[in-house]
Amino acid sequence: MPLPDERGYFGSFGGRYVPETLMPALEELTAAYQEARRDPSFWQELEYYLQQYVGRPSPLYFARRLSEYCRGARIYLKREDLNHTGAHKINNTIGQILLARRMGKKRIIAETGAGQHGVATATAAALFGMECAVYMGEEDMARQALNVFRMRILGATVVGVTAGSRTLKDAMNEAMRDWVTNVDTTYYLIGSVAGPHPYPVMVRDFQRVIGVETRRQVQEQTGRLPDVIVACVGGGSNAMGIFHPFLEDREVKLVGVEAAGCGLETGKHAATLNRGRPGILHGSKSYVLQDEDGQINLAHSISAGLDYPGVGPEHSYLKETGRVVYTAVTDGEALEAFQLLCRTEGIIPALESAHALAQAVRMAGEMPQDAIIVVNLSGRGDKDVQTVARALGGEG
């Protein structure tokens, strides 16, 4: 049976755990998406914008010097960092903006951690002339000041969130409150494969283009499928986008990489699938970082985009079925990978993507030279250079 089921469950994960006031809005959204999903003109319009505005297909690039450094498998990079706005996030925001317009909504709200989803949402809202408000924790606003400025230039209102840890989790709480209050006029544009049904399946569908292109490109360049695909996992949208078209190819190993922060044993990490347990967060059942009483624990990562105590429900299902292996990389290992890609390939990766790179480098040296690893380079690192400078003791 295709997943999720009609109630939005991937096995025992997913569903809708929201206030009663939001149920009509979710039913309306589900009906609108199901109608759009069956309408070829919807996908034709999305394809037009992905090609002519976003710049798809993104390249699949053979990282020769990085591969030589590893002395093992050949490493290919899926260059989502070359999309307009600099990350994979734009694939989903264009899809959801088209849906919001179809539903007659005039106001868009979103939440963001690293700012890439916020910038992508502000961009799409500007493109279609919609009012836009983006919720962002003040901790993340300080870490990602450049992206805050970009959102404001694009005409969005950035709403600073001072509650809790002042990061993505709290921004999502505030966006949910806004939606409850303004549900008749407002479309909530969630940026990851998280949240209540139908968001996990809808975002996955809009991000599948990454894996569909990768599948075609790797076969064109190498004549076969890759041995391993690696992607970072916070909420998990870039990983689900590249993994999903390969789920039935059992010979392709799929590896998701979470943020181990200061180390899994320190408690200062964001490794939800490695150290969490099933619970409810932001409207769905999935793995969650929580204490013995079920209270949500604070997450930690040097990467604002991975600094989230939850994960999309389909990832929890794929963990429990064993189809995807989930591992973790520390802040220090991600920083090393960040610098390594800069110096070997002249590419500055997002710190999120650097986690996936670190795992690929770990694996490549232990694999034969005819093996193929694909890394989803989910975003570019301009936004992170000050964070990296501070971490390395330079100017920030």
Q: How is the secondary structure organized here?
A:
Layout: E1 9-10, E2 13-14, H1 23-37, H2 40-54, E3 60-62, H3 64-70, E4 74-79, H4 89-102, E5 107-112, H5 116-127, E6 131-137, H6 138-143, H7 145-153, E7 157-161, H8 168-181, E8 186-188, H9 199-222, E9 228-232, H10 237-243, E10 253-261, H11 272-275, E11 277-281, E12 284-288, H12 313-321, E13 324-330, H13 331-345, H14 351-364, E14 372-377, H15 385-391
Parallel strand pairs: 4-14, 5-6, 5-8, 6-7, 9-10, 9-14, 10-13
Antiparallel strand pairs: 1-2, 3-4, 11-12
What does this structure look like?
The mean pLDDT is 95. By secondary structure, the protein is of the alpha/beta class. The strands form four sheets. Strands 3-4-14-9-10-13 form a six-stranded mixed beta sheet, with helices on both faces. It has a four-stranded parallel beta sheet with strand order 7-6-5-8, sandwiched between helices. The relative contact order is 0.16. A hairpin with a 2-residue loop joins strand 1 and strand 2. It has two domains: 9-51 and 89-199, Rossmann fold (3-Layer(aba) Sandwich), CATH 3.40.50; 56-86 and 208-392, Rossmann fold, CATH 3.40.50.1100. It has helices at 23-37, 40-54, 64-70, 89-102, 116-127, 138-143, 145-153, 168-181, 199-222, 237-243, 272-275, 313-321, 331-345, 351-364, 385-391, and strands at residues 9-10, 13-14, 60-62, 74-79, 107-112, 131-137, 157-161, 186-188, 228-232, 253-261, 277-281, 284-288, 324-330, 372-377. Helix 4 crosses helix 5 (116-127) and helix 9 (199-222) packs across helix 10. It has 15 helices and 14 strands.
